[in-house]
Amino acid sequence: MDAAMFTIFPFIGLLIYLLPIIIAVYVIIMWVNLTKERNAYLKQIAEELRRRQ
User: Fold this and answer.
1) Rounded Cα gap, residues 10 and 33, in angstroms
2) Which class for 41: exposed (0-12), middle (13-18), buried (19 or more C-beta within 10 A)?
3) Predicted structure pTM score
């Protein structure tokens, strides 16, 4: 049981360091996608306003 704990500790340490990086990359990707979607909506609104003038 003791040896098993020592083999698990490096993986736990690795997860502690990698998990924030993975979450940060996920948040950045989601933010970029939402920004692209918002820009597309704003472009549609701008085109519609130009047609009405």
Assistant:
1) 35
2) exposed
3) 0.67
Which residue has tokens 């490096």? Answer: 10
Q: Which tokens sit at 27? A: 């948040």
Q: What is the Cα 27 distance to its own chain's centre?
A: 2
Name the phi and psi angles at 52, rounded to 5.
-75, -20
| Identity of the amino acid at 35 | T
* The two three-digit tokens of residue 40, written as one number: 């597309």
Cβ density class 2-13: b for 16+ within 10 Å, e for less:
eeeeeeeeeeee
* Confidence at residue 5, expressed as pLDDT on a 0 to 100 scale: 65
